[in-house]
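Quick one, tokens below:
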């Protein structure tokens, strides 16, 4: 399991969420409006967003890495082809189990120096209204266009911040995973419950 594998799985979950809901019902409260000075336009919205090429564009993961991630995730049972559509379908139950109980051991996160960036973990919009900060500084992914200062947290994969700028659901899920990776029990518990709702395709209120 590699960091890009989890980024790809969460992107696939986001695509499934988008397909399951009409545009008007999609939750955009976790987006980046006003949090970065420049948000590139969405891309990868061609006729098949599940193609390797489209996934490369929407995640920043190279085509060879996308293919490798799809293979690894299939081998461990986190991904399979849908019987109806043939599209890659995420085993969200087992993914949730791994993210809640295993990700902080396999991909631990430690706060670093103060940098400019994009809020993540409890500072991200998905959690900001639900939790008060337990420390002096928020956590951020380092980004030159970010408008917030905080302690640097390494993302699951180097392209995750760029992918999150184009997908509010993906941003929310990556931030929730970071809350678990940082290992604070209160934040991790709430993040795990919210993450379950995202993975199940529920509307977040």
């Amino acid at each position: 399991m590699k960091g890009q594998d989890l980024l790809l799985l969460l992107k696939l979950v986001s695509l499934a969420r988008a397909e399951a809901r009409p545009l008007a019902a999609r939750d955009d409260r976790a987006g980046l409006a006003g949090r970065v000075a420049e948000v590139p336009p969405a891309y990868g919205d061609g006729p098949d967003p599940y193609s390797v090429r489209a996934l490369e564009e929407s995640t920043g993961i190279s085509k060879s890495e996308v293919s490798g991630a799809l293979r690894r995730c299939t081998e461990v049972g986190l991904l399979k082809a849908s019987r109806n559509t043939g599209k890659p379908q995420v085993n969200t139950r087992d993914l949730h189990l791994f993210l809640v109980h295993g990700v902080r051991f396999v991909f631990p996160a430690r706060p670093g120096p103060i940098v400019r960036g994009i809020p993540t973990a409890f500072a991200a919009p998905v959690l900001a209204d639900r939790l008060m900060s337990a420390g002096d500084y928020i956590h951020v992914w380092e980004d030159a266009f970010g408008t917030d200062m905080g302690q640097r947290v390494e993302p699951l994969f180097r392209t995750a911040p760029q992918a999150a700028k184009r997908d509010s659901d993906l941003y929310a899920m990556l931030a929730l995973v970071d809350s678990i990776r940082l290992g604070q029990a209160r934040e991790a518990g709430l993040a795990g419950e919210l993450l379950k709702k995202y993975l199940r395709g529920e509307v977040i209120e």
